[in-house]
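Replying to the earlier thread about multi-chain prediction with a worked example.

Input:
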Amino acid sequence: MAIIKLPECKVNQLKEICKSFNNDSGELINVLHKAQDVFGYLPAEVQEIVAKELNVSVAHVYGVVSFYSFFTMTPKGRYPISICMGTACYVRGAEKVLDEFRRELGVQVGESTPDGRHSLACLRCVGACGLAPVVMVGEKVYGRVAPEDVKGILAEYANL
Amino acid sequence: MTQIKMHLLVCGGTGCRSSHSELVAKALNESLANHGLDAEAKVVSTGCFGFCEKGPIVKVVPDNTFYVQVNPDDAEEIVKEHVLKGRKVQRLLYLDPEKEKTVSDDRHMTFYKKQIRIALRNCGFIDPENIDEYIARDGYSALAKCLTEFTPQQVIDIIKKSGLRGRGGGGFPTGLKWEITSRVQADQKYVICNADEGDPGAFMDRSILEGDPHSVIEAMAINGYCTGASKGLVYIRAEYPLAIKRLQIAIDQARKYGLLGENIFGTGFNFDIELRYGAGAFVCGEETALIHSMEGKRGEPTFKPPFPSEHGYLGKPSNVNNVETYANVPVIILKGPEWFASIGTEKSKGTKVFALAGKVNNVGLIEVPMGITLREVIFEIGGGIKGGKEFKAVQTGGPSGGCLTARHLDTPIDYDNLLAAGSMMGSGGMIVMDEDDCMVSIAKFYLEFTVEESCGKCSPCRIGNKRLHEILEKICKGEGTMEDLEKLKNLSQVIKDTSLCGLGQTSPNPVLSTLENFWDEYVEHVVDKKCRAGVCKSLMKYTIDQEACVGCTACARACPVNAISGERKQPHTINQSICIKCGACMEKCKFNAVLLQ
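Result:
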């Protein structure tokens, strides 16, 4: 068992979440959604607590967490960057935009910058295909992004 | 009570919201208030109009004026000119690129002319967060009709007669599915709506849920009446926050009005709906995988039979249909199966919603009658290829579909024709490609997706697709052989024949269809080590024309890896072992001295 490093209040909050779903193992995915809302990600400790509360094995919880791309076990940056890799964006040059972000940030997809400001991820279709290629920083959507625009987008967050 | 004379419909779909349509709505409201017109004109935030290319869109009714690419700054002018003085703001009207004339009424726009909107009938017309507007458009009267005038079997017969087929991709006859579920005896049954639209480049289900959530709720209740289910579940992607919000509002409002809950319309019929969230797994679009996911497990598919109709959610009979399928149901009940069956082709009735995207002028969401040709969709509705380039291919059916070419342009679109052409209807993604797209790379792109999304349960899909992807990568790097092309073909066939679920059974389609339709391009990659579209970096080589180069050093300064060397005013050269082929030098050169081979 990993050492529980979570503060007591967070642990209680997590237990409350489980309770609000009647500690029903069938609600595991809904519980994990809420837990990720609270913690930003799903570290091993969180998974262990959830497993215990819902009375399922940690392996079962880990199996579900690792199966779904929406769940992450690594913390995201404060301003997470997601590049849409849906087909519409792909054919309109999303890969070149991604390359530029990689180069500018010096991180690979799935990683965060050392200062924790940005994390880089790909996502599948936000449904704004008319604006392809699309980049999301946090909740903000940038449309028709060209590789040349990358520096400017990052500059908006440089002092935040 | 003051009479509202004019409605300003502002698109509130995800596409237009991304270009700040809420700010437009806010600005319009403020401006109306400033001019004291807020009692006469009302701003309504609606669902998607479909013409995403020109968003944000504002439509003024009753005169049907269609404004495109509206900025918050334009609000004042619209209110002052149009609302106050009745003069249309010319500069915001849609400009027909062919006739170079503005078109004010959307009914005369080529984008809309050939469309028939059934599933999208209310999208861009009503406020999705207000149940009264849905009711005013005959909402819930189909449910009332079913409950008070028909037996469950009669309703099933109507759906069967209409010829409606599953819009999620498979095309299974909807009425038949309902009948099977209704005939199974069980103490509890479930109505499930599949809103796990994982297909990259498809957003029709989301638009329906965002624009007209009540139509889905009504249809699910009708299904509950037919099959004897009192519970409905919507499995929706967590990535669609707006759709979730609007659906939840709609469910709450329907409950308040007694249209969900107990004893609906005083007929003793009980039905209620809950939401279940997906968590980003493409395979969960497969119905058995979806059910496992709803039960809180890994979304792995199981062998069929037993079908969910017999053994579904928590082991109980469950009717699974897709969002678009449900959205068609209320209209069929109200207008009759004969009307619906009169639209479309012999075996595919009604309409289909497509998300038209890629290298086409008018990107957007369209609903067209079955049997329309690809040419009409791409060149009339879609307005042709962007930048006047050459049409190369159109991909339908997402990662399960295939690429069709110019020779398929006149094929009428229906389930069976698309299958025969080596693609499929799928959920309705339609991505147009031009001469700049490399078909080998496109196949590789889809395989990358499948490899990532394969659940790993059965080996043909888990390992086979990985091998396919590796071979494609090899070809794109210029290391492929003719033998690899044979291997691609054989392996694809094996994966199709032996995979457990629909994902694996269709995942080689992008490879097979590109092999079939673009064999030359594969051979070029393998034999001539050439990528004609200039996409496969390993097959490209940037060089500097020693005669054209004036030695301005612009390229050397632009090069991110310092691969370019040369004295000032002397011709430069590119060190091929360092070059990462980013093309920065070519963009910077003013003398066209950088060549791409």
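The mean pLDDT of chain B is 93.

Feel free to reuse this layout for your own posts.
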